[in-house]
Design brief:
Helix content is 41%, strand content 15%. The chain has eight helices and seven strands. It has a seven-stranded parallel sheet with strand order 3-2-1-4-5-6-7, sandwiched between helices. The termini are far apart. The structure holds NADP nicotinamide-adenine-dinucleotide phosphate (NAP). NADP nicotinamide-adenine-dinucleotide phosphate (NAP) binds next to helix 1. NADP nicotinamide-adenine-dinucleotide phosphate binds next to helix 1.
Length: 256
């Protein structure tokens, strides 16, 4: 297998950290961008961390230049950054999710390695097309905007051989969320298991596998597409969801 250079934006925590580690274990060169190292960021010799705030336009330019001069031309960019704030900070969400993604793609368009496969993968969410009562409007708009950005760049970068796709998970059981589900909210975890057609919550590795597929030769004619990684969750009608929820309380409600 040919070693490739991946840039993982938002790869210090959560889903991005797992993707970066999976790629590094495959022997690829991985440049990770985030603001701070988590205590459990593994020391893998294939990973280089670049600590920077994506909210700062000049730092974005400086970081991308440093990455290219240290690790060379890029084969794949994976966007996993997640704006986190306690309130609905519209400007912050738009800047980190949309503006930073567009800016970094623009900065890197001419820095792809033309001897390798080339692609961009954006982690979106099922919330790009559904409404989640627990998430602010800015998150919904950012994800819907990312989905359209993927289609736009897929068309505009097609002739350069750069494929652009997205992966949309539903709620993911990240390492950081395990305590919440296993010790404090076991009933919720069990309900997810009963409602999701594949019978369990998704893991960061499920998302990572889809990302790796979209960066492989096996997806060489796929561009501008969104793959839902949700165990079939978003396929259910409102009635089926309601019946499955009710069946969590009384199993006879599942049958009609
Ligand atoms: N978790 C889920 O259940 C779920 C479900 C559907 C979709 N998603 C999507 O999956 C992606 C990853 O989610 P996650 O839950 O894994 O997120 P997360 O654990 O909060 O990680 C977010 C990453 O973004 C980085 N980041 C955030 N703000 C930044 C900034 N200003 N500058 C630089 N880096 C920044 C963080 O690094 P630092 O903290 O070090 O800055 C971290 O590496 C997101 O696009 C999210 O919308 C997640």
């Amino acid at each position: 297998m040919k070693k490739k250079h991946y840039i993982v934006i938002g790869g210090t925590k959560g889903i991005g950290r797992v993707i970066a580690n999976d790629l590094a274990h495959e022997g690829h060169i991985v440049s990770v961008v985030g603001r701070k190292l988590a205590p459990d960021n593994k020391k893998n010799k294939n990973i280089t961390h670049w600590l920077t705030d994506l909210a700062d336009t000049n730092k974005r330019i400086e970081t991308i230049n440093q990455i290219l001069s240290r690790n060379g031309k890029v084969s794949h960019i994976i966007f996993c950054q997640q704006f986190r704030n306690t309130h609905d900070d519209w400007a912050g969400q738009i800047e980190i999710s949309l503006t930073a993604t567009k800016h970094i793609i623009d900065l890197l368009t001419d820095a792809f390695d033309y001897t390798n496969d080339r692609s961009i993968v954006v982690i979106s969410s099922v919330i790009g097309s559904l409404v989640a009562t627990g998430q602010p409007l800015s998150y919904h708009i950012a994800k819907a905007g990312l989905n359209q950005m993927v289609r736009y760049f897929a068309v505009h970068l097609g002739l350069k051989g750069i494929r652009v796709n997205s992966v949309s998970p539903a709620t993911v059981l990240k390492d950081e969320a395990k305590e919440f589900y296993y010790t404090k909210n076991k009933a919720l975890l069990d309900l997810f298991g009963q409602i999701i057609p594949l019978g369990r919550m998704g893991s960061p590795h499920d998302v990572s596998d889809a990302v790796q597929f979209l960066c492989s030769k096996q997806s060489s004619y796929i561009t501008g597409q969104d793959i839902k990684v949700d165990g079939g969750y978003s396929l259910l009608t409102q009635e089926s969801l309601t019946r499955r929820l009710a069946a969590g309380v009384n199993p006879t409600h599942e049958k009609k």
